[in-house]
């Protein structure tokens, strides 16, 4: 098995060295990437398939084809960091996924998963297998389901219609309707579907062994295709609440993000995440936790106001990334950008796109919001402390503010929560500080 790890926007050349990838395997990986939902019309939304090598784009995760895997990690750095290992980047990516998708990854478990030797996919599979094994040992959930069967003795209720029609000439049998405690319920069907899917893609021997054992546990549960699973029939109550975390993992594996693909004669699979979207959702979760219990609240991809009107018909609907409200009033709009700001010495605008600035100003005008922010990830090329720079819009004494800020994604989650609180206080002043500290 050939395994290679690169970082977003990096290139890996064709070749046989450990830092290269054989061209035949590269072609297979590129074929799987082209079949992904994240691939754009040109087919290179995930990987650029060049003459001399593959180049990753702004999508991270794992792409796998027979006998080869390519892991793409994000460039997550903290202030003052210059050489961050793949192990650290992998851990930070999984932390972001855990917060964003409510995955059950505790701090203690993160140190025992084997960061050095496995890809993100294998680590998540190992986590799922371990938690599912513990859960079934404590008892698989079962419900009473109605059954119908022809039996030599009465069980439950007699099906009179069937008894005196179909079985009219077979008096030795009784048409019975009865309730039976069965494991064949929607929750277990989801778990079996996840185990079946992962059994086809796991490469680590311990994961393969654990999945084989789990497949025997679910042998009495019907095999339902992922597209036909009845998620709506799963009701979590006090008897099965411990399955909530496993459902979150199963949903991740069975969603479009984890695709089983067949591109021509090349079979493969991919578990991929767009970093633009992941960064936005992560900031939303952290900001929601920071604002819990205050007079502020945050919503994502809301607003939907139009830029232009043609008579009564609105055109060009807008979707600000994050909107912070206090009561009914919008007090801050945040547009997250998964881009690398540059130090001021290299670029007076610090890599901030003029188009992004115009878009933010349009949001402020459309939503009558006095504060707009572009939020970027911090990285090692910037000063150690996170950036929060204020600009007045249109005139020097304007009350409308435009902020350019960064969020340091290194460190623990509590550090990130404190950082977004500081950003909010820096933008909204004493009012925000009083609310957040209350």
What does this structure look like?
This protein has a six-stranded mixed β-sheet, with helices on both faces. It has a five-stranded mixed β-sheet with strand order 1-6-5-11-10, with helices on both faces. Helix 2 crosses helix 9, helix 6 (186-199) packs across helix 8 (244-254) and helix 9 (275-291) packs across helix 11 (413-428). It has three domains: 2-138 and 187-275, no CATH class; 143-182, no CATH class; 292-437, no CATH class. The N and C termini lie far apart (55 Å). The chain is built from twelve helices and 19 strands. The model has no long low-confidence stretch (mean pLDDT 85). With 438 residues, it is α+β, with helices and mostly antiparallel strands.
Can you describe this structure in just a few lines?
With 438 residues, the chain is an alpha+beta fold. It has helices at 23-34, 86-100, 107-110, 120-137, 160-163, 186-199, 205-217, 244-254, 275-291, 354-366, 413-428, 430-437, and strands spanning 2-7, 11-13, 47-49, 53-56, 59-65, 68-73, 143-151, 157-158, 174-182, 258-263, 266-274, 296-300, 306-310, 313-317, 322-326, 329-336, 371-377, 388-392, 401-407.
Name some characteristics of this structure:
single chain, 438 residues, alpha+beta, six-stranded mixed sheet, five-stranded mixed sheet, 12 helices, 19 strands, 25% strand, globular
**How many helical elements?**
12
Find the count of extended strands (DSSP E, 2+ residues): 19
What would you call the structural class? Answer: alpha+beta
Distance between the termini: 55 Å
Rounded to the nearest angstrom, the radius of gyration is 27 Å
- How many domains, as an integer? 3
The overall pLDDT, averaged over residues, is: 85
Strand content: 25-35%
Q: How many strands, what sense, and barrel or not for the largest sheet?
A: 6 strands, mixed
Strand order, sheet with most strands: 12-15-16-17-19-18
**Overall outline:** globular
Could you list the spans in which at least 5 consecutive residues all have pLDDT below 50?
none
Give the % helix. 25-40%
């Amino acid at each position: 098995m050939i395994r290679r790890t690169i970082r977003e926007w990096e290139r890996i050349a064709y070749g046989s060295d450990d830092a290269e990838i054989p061209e035949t395997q590269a072609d297979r990986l590129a074929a799987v990437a082209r079949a992904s939902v994240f691939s754009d019309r040109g087919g290179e939304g995930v990987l650029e398939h060049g003459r001399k090598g593959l180049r990753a784009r702004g999508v991270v995760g794992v792409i796998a084809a027979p006998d080869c895997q390519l892991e793409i990690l994000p460039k997550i750095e903290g202030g003052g960091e210059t050489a961050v290992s793949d192990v650290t980047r992998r851990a930070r990516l999984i932390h972001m996924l855990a917060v964003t998708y409510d995955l059950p990854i505790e701090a203690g478990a993160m140190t025992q998963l084997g960061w050095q030797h496995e890809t993100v996919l294998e680590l998540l599979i190992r986590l799922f297998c371990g938690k599912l094994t513990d859960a079934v040992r404590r008892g698989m959930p079962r419900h009473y389901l109605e059954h119908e069967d022809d039996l030599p003795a009465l069980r439950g209720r007699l099906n009179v219609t069937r008894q005196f029609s179909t079985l009219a000439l077979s008096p030795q049998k009784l048409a019975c309707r009865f309730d039976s405690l069965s494991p064949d319920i929607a929750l277990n069907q989801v778990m079996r579907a996840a185990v079946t899917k992962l059994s086809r893609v796991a490469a680590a021997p311990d994961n393969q062994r654990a999945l084989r054992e789990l497949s025997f546990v679910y042998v009495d549960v019907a095999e339902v295709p992922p597209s036909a699973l009845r998620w709506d029939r799963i009701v979590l109550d006090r008897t099965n609440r411990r399955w909530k975390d496993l459902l979150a993992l199963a949903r991740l594996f069975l969603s479009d993000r984890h695709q089983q693909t067949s591109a021509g004669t090349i079979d493969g699979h991919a578990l991929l995440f767009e970093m633009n979207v992941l960064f936005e959702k992560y900031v939303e979760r952290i900001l929601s936790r920071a604002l819990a219990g205050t007079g502020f609240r945050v919503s994502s991809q809301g607003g939907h106001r139009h830029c232009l009107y043609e008579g009564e018909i609105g055109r060009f609907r807008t979707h600000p990334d994050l909107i912070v409200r206090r009561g009914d009033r919008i007090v801050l709009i945040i547009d997250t950008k998964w881009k690398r700001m540059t130090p001021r010495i290299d670029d007076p605008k610090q890599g901030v796109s003029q188009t992004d600035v115009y878009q933010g100003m349009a949001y402020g005008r459309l939503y009558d919001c006095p504060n707009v922010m572009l939020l970027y990830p911090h990285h090692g090329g910037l000063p150690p402390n996170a950036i929060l720079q204020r600009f007045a819009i249109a005139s020097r004494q304007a009350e409308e503010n435009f902020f350019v800020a960064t969020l340091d994604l290194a460190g623990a989650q509590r550090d990130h929560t404190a950082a977004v609180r500081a950003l909010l206080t820096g933008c909204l002043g004493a009012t925000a500080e009083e609310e957040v500290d209350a």
